[in-house]
Design brief:
- The radius of gyration is 21 Å and the shape is globular.
- It is mainly beta and 362 residues long.
- The N terminus and C terminus are likely disordered.
- The two termini are 27 Å apart.
- The longest helix is centred in the C-terminal third of the chain and has 14 residues.
- It has 2 helices and 23 strands.
- A 4-stranded antiparallel β-sheet has the order 1-2-3-4, with no helix packed on it. A 4-stranded antiparallel β-sheet has the order 5-6-7-8, with no helix packed on it. Strands 9-10-11-12 form a 4-stranded antiparallel β-sheet, with no helix packed on it.
Amino acid sequence: MERELKLTLLICVALAVVGCGGESGSAGVVGTPALDPLDATPRYAVISSDFSSSSIAMLDEDFVVIDESWLNSGTTYPGLVATLSGDVVLPNRQAGDGTFAVIDRFLTDVVTRFFVPSGNLNGQVRTHGDVGDSGFSSNPQDFIFAGEDSAWTPRYESNLNPSAPREHQGTDLIEINPADMSVTGARIDLSSLDTTAIVMTQDGPVEVEVFARPSRGVLVGSLIVVGLDRISANFDAAGPGMVAVVDLEDESVTGLELPGFKSCGNAGPVPGAPSKVVFRNRDTRCGRKWRHDRARVASGRPPERSHRDQLRRCTRRTASRRGCDRRLRDDGRRAVLAGPRNRGASPHPRVGRLLRHRSVGL
């Protein structure tokens, strides 16, 4: 098991494809030439990343590698506005129509969609318009397919400029037409689920605003269930756990509290149970201890002796602001392989998870 935890696989998502696994089909011969064609129809995609660059490998239904770096941060082909950064994820579920979508998150802010196995580009769209020199990044987190001409993208960040137009405000879901990868203009605001939290400073407790921060989502009938991280602008405070239930029929938003939990943005589908959603709570214990001791150091006091070892462990483990490692879990249908996100301990700075689903797709 220790050897397995050193894998650099970040996420593996089954791809639904047109037909019965052949290389032909209308979806495979349209679009703008962009990537080299694959020799076979992929069923799985695996992302490897060190937070500065990324690479996506394609595997067949038997986990045989078709192309170990079909798309990477060095890919520059006509039709691509932006190449991959080091902060890339795949949708919770692909469309299942012979296409493959990729979300490039913070500071890149684009969603790109390819046809497979041809490698042709369906389109690429930025998740916010021109924001000048404001520095705003919408930070898209998912691409939730709701129909042939409708997909919704959660925008994680909130624009702190109160006069920003609605298309640049963030903390919302925006609609994208996956057929031509264009923004439709539809938007569902989730800022009503913002809250407040208390953060300890050298001057004592201070109440800070906590943004909803919508992350991953799952379509259940006409509802989109979106996980919320609910973290402050400086990532120094987290609000109570909550998920958002968005009704696409009337665009209403309902917040469901999850008492005892925090940072519940990591929502995912349950294989074989289309009406169920699983939320993988991020372990924030290390973050709380780190903030506590950091405040003591800032005020000239040493960290509490009982916290020093835990603080040291958390600092080694935490390569981002999102807590510690996840453990190995297995529910019979899905195996989750996880390890610590440690930048300095190995040549593979980001160790993530392997989600293995049935080859028919998500």
